[in-house]
Amino acid sequence: MNIQHRTLVLVLLLGLTVGVAVAGGGAPPSLPQEFWGSVMIGGSSAPAGTTVTAWIGETEYGSITTTKTGEYGSSSRYDGDRLVVSAAENLDGEMIVFLVDGRTAWETATFTPGSVTRLDLSVAGEGTSTPTPGTGGTGGTGSGAPQGSSPAPVETSTPAVPVGRTSLPLSATGEVSKPVTVGTADGAGSLTIGEGIHARDADGNPLGEVTIAHATAGLPPAPPGTTIGFALDCGPAGATFDPPATLTYTLSEEEWEKISDSATLQVMWYNSGTGKWQEVPTTVDPATRTVTAEVSHFSLFALTWAATPPAETTTGPTDTATGDVPSGPEQPTGDETPWALIAAGVLVVAAVLAGWYLFRRR
Q1: Is the pTM higher than 0.90?
Q2: Residues 12/355, Cβ–Cβ less than 8 Å
Q3: Which residues contact 238 (CB under 8 A, 6 or more apart)?
Q4: What structural domains and CATH numbers belong to the chain?
Q5: Long-range contacts: 333-340, Cβ < 8 Å, 24+?
Q6: What is the band of 148 on the pLDDT scale with cuts at 50, 70, 90?
Q7: How far separated are the first and last CA of the chain, in Å rounded?
């Protein structure tokens, strides 16, 4: 094989390799972000064995258990592990919320792949308020500089609310011995099991733990004439409560304004046996933008309201000012242009032309 043949083969292989890589979108995986710093609970150094977790939305992306009093991770990778937050590249710039033994920290950070950040964490102690994410100090950009001090918590009788899951304190007779509340990370949903409630699992045994999370994928269709605002999945499935537990939906001002008639707000649970949604006794408080329901068992719960009637349709051509596309084959948009395939095709054609040119020069 002479030099021209070798060159032709190499050019063709290079063009095909690059083309396949571009068409397949083979982007390198996102680098993690590493955190370290001090950790305080109620103004005192957190003891060794404290668990620090990092959350983006409803998903946990990293966890570390402290080995030293008042510290998590280390400034030196040789001194100990750091809190590694491994998230997808499309979450770059999203807010990270930190939990210290289930309590929400005052401080937050912005997910910056590939950086190492010092972030000193502090949470309220027993008998103090739960901080709202974002109201305290924020994380840096990986410079390693210490963060500013956090605002002092305001004393209140409300304890910190665990996120996602919590254990139930039970008496010798199997009753919940003190009220327990668990909520979603964004505070939109919460579940309260009061003192004296008999909590049982699906087999009738005392219930040791409850969970709550947003349900988004694979939701059953909304009941006719209604809109599902957001759904909560409470677990374990089949758990029962006597008397009922309290499920609370808390809406933001923006979410509340989207509801055409707040009087139609209703909590429903999905009966998988019948394939239908069923109403749950519901109380609406416009002043606090909360909707509460008494639930005697765990299932998939949804906050619903009356759907807005569709606008009347008119005959004639579609008004182009609205951006509506007339019925017929789906029209491609600028975002759907297959640039990756076009680039791959150009590279392959270029490789073939280069090979033909070299062949002609033989």
Answers
A1: no
A2: yes
A3: 201, 202, 297, 298
A4: 33-123 (2.60.40.1120), 165-306 (2.60.220.30)
A5: 340/22, 340/23, 340/25
A6: very low
A7: 13
